[in-house]
Backbone:
């Protein structure tokens, strides 16, 4: 990637001497940014462009170039690209728009470009992008207006408009960038490659990204998981809601993966998901200058009560905590403050506080062992000198070496103070909640980085037995595996099921029931009925032979009447769950971008009405399986309320891990659901299961995920 | 209040010639704001202050004044106040701090001030405040720095620091105020009086407020409900979380009411609650310039896909909708746009859009009958002229007369465009989500204003019978009314209960059970046991005489062993609920500020674990009772899932309204809970009830709400 970010020579193909044209802006940007390498403007008319004599043809350059920036009409791009390959080129930025985002022809052209680039090992950025900027070395190979300041944020964006808005914001806020990349259509270079590159870039301290879809979910996760251990990755993913996703696919032609899958991918690879642009900037500011706090405990120093309360409110809504100070701290504060000041957290220095009292309070609170980080709120008062306060706070902070954040509630007369804070690495916010949100986010990232290593294990299972069931279904052209077929797979994966057997007659049902012991459950068994409740095909709590026989005839007769066309194998006779059992659901659905997305929830209304579900992508670590279970709102019901016994959590996580293993083993299984899984304090029994299989050897157009 | 906001004479008591002193700043502010009425500086040393000769004593003024601003040491304030009363004064602003917010002595002084002010009919603002500003007429009677621009926002704040921050922000954003009020300790003038005043102030179009507590909940609601029908009220209430509330009470000595009560009060009186300062400003901007939309349907026009998706995402997270355009609209768009532009909502004009295409798109989309309001997103592109776009949008918008909002994604070269939009009343935002949030909020406010009138009715009930039970409990010194006592009140309020009777022996229990019909429930009956489950005092599903007799002895014996000290009246024998019944909880708790706060939730885990509860303040209208029921997440369970019958919703709202009536009739009942109420498709039976009563004639210090 060095040829893209630190090229020693750059060809600008489509360079123009007409001011306002993109081909002129690119050349001018490189010149005004002070690019000192070799520049080759290319224009069929030749002549002098911005003081450099232009080449009429690419071949005229005569020597390979590191980077070429292409801004020519769409229909010329492929030809130009081939000429560049002939000349020799390492990286190409295609600015030109009109590819897969507009029509099928454009899509075909883009595919050809990508193929050529990959064959020749060329880095291709775009097409349909704004370009790339390395703020050091004068590489502003873009048609953005304005040169970003050098800084420590690496930024990439799928949307060119966002690039422009971000550059503009950054210039106004005096925030600098290390690298700035407009991804465009992501024909070759995408978010995964940029995360990898910026992860290794010593000039980048924090990575920011805006995407509308993820190109290669697995590669993205792999890179992000590696890089997030080194530096924070803050990303916005637009198209989160159905309305947004519709706009996304009409815009870039991107197939939006399901948002739950993306959310799980971000979480599992340590990417911090950000919802709003202003929040992205607020968080980036903190991460780029301040150290991570060692814990959630925040000490607040303020000269005004109101903002202190707002900060406390923000703590209450986050994982940040406001610890009680030690008696020593309170004693020291008492000695320095007037009698009616608040000595507790938040410390209120009151309206007549001066720089000295700020400095002392920062020192005292900062030394309290319960405090991990500090928030200093400065509200303007009649005689307060922001500059002096900033100096005092920075000095005090130097002695305590804990992260300090500042909320400066006024823009007037604060320029110098802001510079002092900036130099000392103190992020400054306008409002208390912004500051607390940033601290909360940094703390969570610290927890992520410090988490114990994830443990994976592959449970013993009989893959051949499962394979036989799947192949059999595919051979017979069935896509649904219903209970009595799916059960063989459940068993092959070492999961217990309630004892049960298939009865083909009422007498057989009674015989099986007598063997299992009453009460029993009867369920319709037909390969063509996957939702048994549609035919009212389940009877629970059957207590004697009479009831079983009557239920058998009732279920089968009703099904025959309702679905005269289907084959009825009989009824499944099953052990009844103990009354202490609770029902949970474990399932997965294969996401196009990220693979199997596992789901967990309490059964019944908790999933259906309250949507109380947790998600993770396979393969699932033991720790993640545990998180899934603890994450649902109704978790307390599994722990047991009012003296009820907790369920066997290990048994539940075992089910989750075995399902994850199944999902990884069989790409043919598109969807699976164990529902219900009956858990009590001793075990978790898979009482019902169904799966959807697809022939992955067949035309991909038939896969269910293409039909959405 | 005219003497406060448009005084014809102002005395500044504590005026000083020393620059930087508060008494100097106040006088200077009045002068620099161009106050043209009579000014009387008062200072014991006399002399010339800012060019006016000062009075040594208040009595020297010799003629009554409209307004006096007092900035003298605390211990002089009361004396000064009395002198002002003698001279004759209509309004007094006490700037001085050091009252109830610091110590008991200050609290006593403040009470005396308030008493005097009320006796003499004087408007008292403060103490411990920044002052008051009327941006028209030069009344800057404050020690704020800078004069706010005239405008249409009326702002009041309990926190002086917030006042300063808001003024500073407004000057930077060129936003103006009609009136600007620092409430301080709210000894007399509080949020309710300001809402009333600003509601009638023709110069105020939108009311903004920041409070940490509400002084008089009922008065606040009454004023807010009246005013919110005329103009929007946007308020922040800090101290929302336990952490925040702790900070609040150590700061102002304000007793924080429960946040749920406050939330209900805001909602029921049409106050829009805002969580963050930046949001307050963003919403105020919209309300102060733009008309309310006639519906939730939003048409989006953009020149960049990314921001369009972000706007669509924001719609998905709100009640705003993006309608499908009519075929006519799509046809017109098709004729004007390139083939690869998106003609659907959001309309993407693409990066080469110019002012003309913006104007035409606004006209076309604006004329679509499905569209209620428009969001125009403008991202900077190479050749786009913001000024021209603004002109074209404003012109187009003039022809459609629907509310238009703008997202201008860049600060550079946008000053003129911003002015054009400001003049045309188009609120401009930096980011799409801010704009959609503002539109969402305006739409909700429009719905609130247009809602059908609330209907209240007082159900028939026997207040004397209930009074007898309450008085009896109070006479005997009991504070808890347990089931068999509370049931008489339930019956007096016309609510059905399951048939039941008190049994004093096992034989009596059997006799009652035989009469009621099996199955029955047995519950321990003791005036001293309000939580029957603590002694395991309930048995359900008793099917025969044997079971009833055994249960009676078991329950009573167990209770005697566990609580040998309590009186056991026997057991209550009760009809068993039908299996189709669902359990709900209806209750109330008396909030110190707002009165009875009614609560509704599904029984069991929904309330205990999932905290799925809705709240409203009494008196409850029929419509609000319905809202309470529909608002809970588990509402679907009451409607019936999978073919289950819906419950009798009218019966539930009837219980809510009767409880509201009970709460209003008996201030002695501090807390009440009907739990469970058994509802099925025919009725709602109050199966258990308990209440807490307090002697309100006794010392208020004994009331439970004082003990918090």
Residues:
């Amino acid at each position: 990637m060095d040829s893209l970010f630190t090229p020693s020579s750059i060809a600008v193909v489509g360079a123009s001497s007409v001011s306002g044209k993109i081909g002129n802006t690119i050349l001018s940007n490189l010149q005004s940014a002070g690019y000192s390498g070799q520049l080759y403007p290319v224009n069929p008319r030749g002549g002098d462009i911005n003081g450099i004599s232009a080449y009429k043809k690419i071949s005229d350059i005569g020597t390979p170039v590191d980077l070429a920036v292409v801004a020519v009409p769409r229909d010329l791009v492929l030809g130009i690209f081939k000429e560049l390959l002939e000349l020799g080129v390492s990286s190409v930025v295609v600015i030109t728009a009109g590819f897969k985002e507009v029509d099928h022809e454009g899509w075909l052209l883009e595919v050809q470009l990508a193929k050529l680039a990959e064959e020749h090992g060329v880095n291709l950025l775009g097409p349909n992008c704004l370009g790339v900027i390395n703020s050091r070395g004068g590489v502003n190979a873009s048609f953005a207006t304005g040169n970003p300041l050098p800084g420590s944020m690496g930024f990439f964006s799928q949307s060119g408009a966002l690039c422009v808005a971000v550059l503009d914001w950054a210039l106004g806020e005096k925030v600098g960038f290390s690298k700035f990349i407009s991804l465009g259509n992501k024909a070759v270079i995408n978010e995964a490659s940029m995360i990898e590159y910026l992860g290794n870039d010593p000039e980048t301290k924090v990575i920011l990204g805006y995407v509308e879809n993820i190109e290669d979910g697995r590669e993205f996760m792999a890179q992000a998981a590696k890089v997030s251990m080194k530096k924070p990755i803050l990303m916005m993913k637009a198209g989160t809601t159905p309305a947004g996703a519709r706009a996304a696919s009409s815009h870039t032609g991107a197939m939006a993966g399901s948002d739950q899958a993306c959310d799980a991918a971000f979480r599992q690879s340590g990417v911090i998901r950000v919802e709003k642009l202003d929040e992205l900037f607020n968080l980036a500011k903190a991460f780029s200058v301040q150290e991570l706090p060692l814990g959630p405990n925040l000490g607040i120093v303020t000269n005004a009560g109101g903002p202190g309360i707002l900060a406390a409110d923000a703590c209450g809504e986050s994982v940040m905590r406001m610890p009680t100070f030690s008696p020593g701290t309170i004693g020291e504060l008492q000695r320095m403050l007037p009698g009616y000041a608040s000595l507790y957290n938040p410390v209120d220095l009151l309206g007549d506080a001066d720089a000295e009292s700020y400095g002392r309070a920062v020192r005292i609170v900062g030394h309290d062992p319960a405090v991990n980080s500090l928030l200093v709120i400065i509200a303007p008062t009649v005689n307060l000198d922001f500059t002096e306060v900033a100096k005092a706070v920075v000095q005090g902070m130097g002695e305590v070496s804990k992260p300090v954040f500042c909320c400066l509630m006024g823009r007037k007369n604060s320029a110098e103070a802001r510079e002092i804070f900036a130099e000392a690495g103190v992020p400054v916010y306008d409002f208390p909640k912004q500051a607390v949100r940033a601290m909360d986010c940094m703390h969570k990232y610290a927890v992520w980085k410090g988490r114990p290593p994830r443990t994976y294990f592959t449970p013993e299972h009989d893959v051949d037995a499962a394979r036989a069931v799947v192949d059999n279904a595919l051979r017979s052209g069935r896509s649904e595996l219903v209970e009595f077929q799916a059960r063989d797979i459940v068993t092959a994966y070492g999961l217990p099921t309630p004892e049960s057997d298939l009865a083909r007659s009422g007498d057989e049902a009674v015989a099986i029931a007598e063997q299992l012991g009453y009460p029993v459950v009867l369920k319709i068994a037909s390969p063509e009925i996957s939702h048994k409740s549609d035919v009212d095909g389940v009877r629970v709590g059957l207590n004697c032979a009479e009831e079983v026989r009557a239920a058998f005839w009732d279920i089968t007769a009703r099904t025959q009447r309702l679905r005269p066309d289907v084959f009825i194998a009989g009824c499944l006779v099953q052990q009844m769950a103990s009354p202490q059992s609770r029902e949970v659901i474990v399932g997965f659905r294969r996401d196009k971008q990220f693979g199997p997305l596992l789901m967990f929830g309490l059964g019944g209304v908790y999933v259906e009405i309250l949507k109380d579900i947790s998600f993770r992508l396979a393969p699932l670590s033991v720790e993640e399986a545990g998180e899934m279970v603890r994450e649902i709102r109704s978790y307390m019901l599994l722990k047991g309320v009012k003296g009820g016994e907790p369920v066997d959590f290990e048994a539940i996580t075992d089910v989750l891990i075995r399902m994850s293993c199944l999902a990884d083993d069989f790409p043919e299984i598109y969807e699976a659901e164990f529902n219900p899984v009956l858990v009590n304090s001793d075990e978790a029994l898979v009482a019902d299961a169904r799966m959807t299989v697809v022939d992955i050897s067949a035309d991909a157009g038939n896969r269910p995920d293409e039909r959405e």
Q: What stands out?
A: Residues 249-257, 700-708 of chain B have pLDDT under 50 and may be disordered. The first strand of chain B starts at residue 9 and ends at 13. The longest helix of chain B spans residues 432-449. Residues 1-133 of chain B form a domain with the Rossmann fold fold (CATH 3.40.50.720).
